[in-house]
Amino acid sequence: MSQSLPAASALPVEHQSKTAASVAPRAAAPIVDIAHVGLTLSSRAGAVEILRDVSLSVRPGQSVAIVGPSGSGKTSLLMVLAGLERATTGTVTIAGEDFTRMSEDELAAVRGRDIGIVFQSFHLVPTMTALENIALPLEFAGDKSAFPRARELLTEVGLAARAEHFPAELSGGEQQRIALARALSGRPRLILADEPTGNLDGKTGNQVIELLFDMHRRHRATLVLITHDDALAVQCERIVRMADGRIIADETHGVAEHQATL
Ligand SMILES: Nc1ncnc2c1ncn2[C@@H]1O[C@H](COP(=O)(O)OP(=O)(O)OP(=O)(O)O)[C@@H](O)[C@H]1O
Ligand SMILES: [Mg+2]
């Protein structure tokens, strides 16, 4: 994977020019690259077209807000990017992997390795303590220091004192912060967040956002963030607008994306 290759700037100078010359014509491969994606789900009322001809390419390290009215397909798009929902049509390449060809197990492996997902609902394991919930994915990944690292993250989200609490013994905001710490524990290259502050008060919401952006800046993680909050959307480098299952606008700092990338 490209992650394991040294950055050109980390190489001795004599190698840099050669490497730069050989890779110069191509920009870094996008971490999200989907084209003409359609998603049709069946419901009791018949087939529902949820995503229509959605194409989106995101370069590594970019922050992208996804905005749009309720029901416009934002969560569905995020599910496709996470490999939790399979596109009915089109191509889906995430972190260089062709999601349309992968088995459920292979998709789960990519999620565990490269993607941190923060949902509106928290999906914590109810029988595990806050600390265990955060340590779980690290242990799965074979991290020998899963618990010390989980404790560090717990402190980062301001909940060191709640390590031994079970989810039912935590407030909604506290559960959200635990879920965030768990999503970020493996230092994912791609963070997918679905209205992460939807259930939180202003102060706790700001802490969660600060953590997300901190991860994005410090580790150059790509951030795709669904939000209804315009003030939050403008903190992202790029804003993608959805309506009725389609992308209707795509702007980077006020410039339409196709112009910005020329
Ligand atoms: N499993 C499903 N079967 C049928 N239709 C579905 C299913 N899941 C979602 N939908 C429909 O797909 C559309 C898009 O839903 P989605 O959850 O992606 O919207 P959203 O933009 O995230 O909305 P919100 O801002 O309210 O969270 C909605 O009309 C919804 O009713
Ligand atoms: Mg949604």
Q: Could you name the ranges where pLDDT drops below 50 across 5 or more consecutive residues?
A: 1-25
What share of residues are in beta strands?
Answer: 25-35%
**How much is the average pLDDT?**
86
Our count of helices gives: 9
- Can you tell me the CATH architecture of the domain at 60-84 and 103-260? 3-Layer(aba) Sandwich
SSE ordering: HEEEHEEHEHHHEHEHEEEH
Q: Please state how the strands of the largest beta sheet are arranged side by side.
A: 6-7-8-3-9-10-11
Structural class: alpha/beta
User: In percent, how helical is the residue content?
Assistant: 25-40%
Q: Output the CATH topology of the domain at 60-84 and 103-260.
A: Rossmann fold
Largest sheet: 7 strands, mixed
CATH class of the domain at 60-84 and 103-260: Alpha Beta
DSSP, total strands: 11
Cα distance, first to last residue?
27 Å
Rg, Å, rounded: 19 Å
